[in-house]
Amino acid sequence: RRERQRFVDKNGRCNVQHGNLGGESSRYLSDLFTTLVDLKWRWNLLIFLLTYTVAWLVMASMWWGIAYLRGDLHRPRDNTYSPCVANVYNFPSAFLFFIETEATIGYGHRYITERCPEGIVLFLFQSLLGSIVDAFLIGCMFIKMSQPKKRAETLMFSRAAVVSQRDGKLCLMFRVGNLRNSHMVSAQIRCKLIKSRQTPEGEFLPLDQCELDVGFGTGADQLFLVSPLTICHEINSKSPFFCLSQRSLRSEQFEIVVILEGIVETTGMTCQARTSYTEDEVLWGHRFLPVMSLEDGFFRVDYSQFHATFEVPTPSYSVKE
């Protein structure tokens, strides 16, 4: 097997990195919410902790600053004096007052007096800022946790694609399956052939994308994915593999990207799973082993045979030949 660079890995990750963006990198900051959602979990948790820690320390410092400027820290036990915040003697007590206010705990020992207009203004600012920070960060974490990426890991693709005859026609086939009992609503599958080519004008296209027909006209691309299905691409005069033979397959260099999309039944969110097959993973003259069997009152799927194939008599020449 020839190891080469893939455009899409077997697990669906796209091997594309964007560099030298220049001023375009500012667009990531203009859409900060999506940028945070796209980050890895360790960075999300770090930003989450740092944002709240810095916000808490800054706001507690502002409450301590008001008490310091008013002289409340120098007369903590004077019953005849009305401080801005009762029972705030130092920075830890100011920090505790901020936490009690922000978390709406309200123990009752510390409270704002009516003779402190700056404290009232700061309290309103703290309430607005706290609501914005909570909505932004908690919303970001909720969206990230509810992303259907993990659901895509329970959608299965065969390790290899096969070429053999079906109904007297030469076809390229691969298998898909759903490991969960919950269904994928409106599941649809698409295939892209990625191959370098040169146009008649001399332009070289290193990653030219071509659509592979997997049943658009007949509706076969709309899947009822309750059991493993074999997806079939008929090789005919309109297919990019019209001139492909068993012999020429050894010298070809292409990649077939498979995209399976559907709506997760339990959450209603759109899920997408991807994989790819290179020319080394296309087995000529093979067919997939059956995985369905009829048991007592139900159908049983044997996933141990999901990737298994066996050889069948198949013409070695191309459809064109």
TrEMBL record:
InterPro entries from the UniProt entry: Ig_E-set, IRK_C, K_chnl_inward-rec_Kir, K_chnl_inward-rec_Kir3.1, K_chnl_inward-rec_Kir_cyto, Kir_TM
Q: Which GO terms describe its biological process?
A: potassium ion import across plasma membrane; regulation of monoatomic ion transmembrane transport
**A cellular component annotation (GO) from this entry:** monoatomic ion channel complex
From the Swiss-Prot or TrEMBL record, state where the protein is found: Membrane
List the residue(s) that the UniProt entry marks as the site Role in the control of polyamine-mediated channel gating and in the blocking by intracellular magnesium: 134
Q: Which reaction does it catalyse?
A: K(+)(in) = K(+)(out)
Keywords for this entry? Ion channel, Ion transport, Membrane, Potassium, Potassium transport, Transmembrane, Transmembrane helix, Transport, Voltage-gated channel
**How is this protein situated with respect to the membrane?**
Multi-pass membrane protein
Q: Where is the Inward rectifier potassium channel C-terminal domain?
A: 155-320
List the Gene Ontology MF annotations in alphabetical order.
G-protein activated inward rectifier potassium channel activity
Q: Which sequence ranges are marked TM in the entry?
A: 45-66, 120-143
Source superkingdom? Eukaryota
Q: Name one Pfam family in it.
A: IRK_C
Name it: G protein-activated inward rectifier potassium channel 1
Q: Which gene encodes it?
A: Kcnj3_0
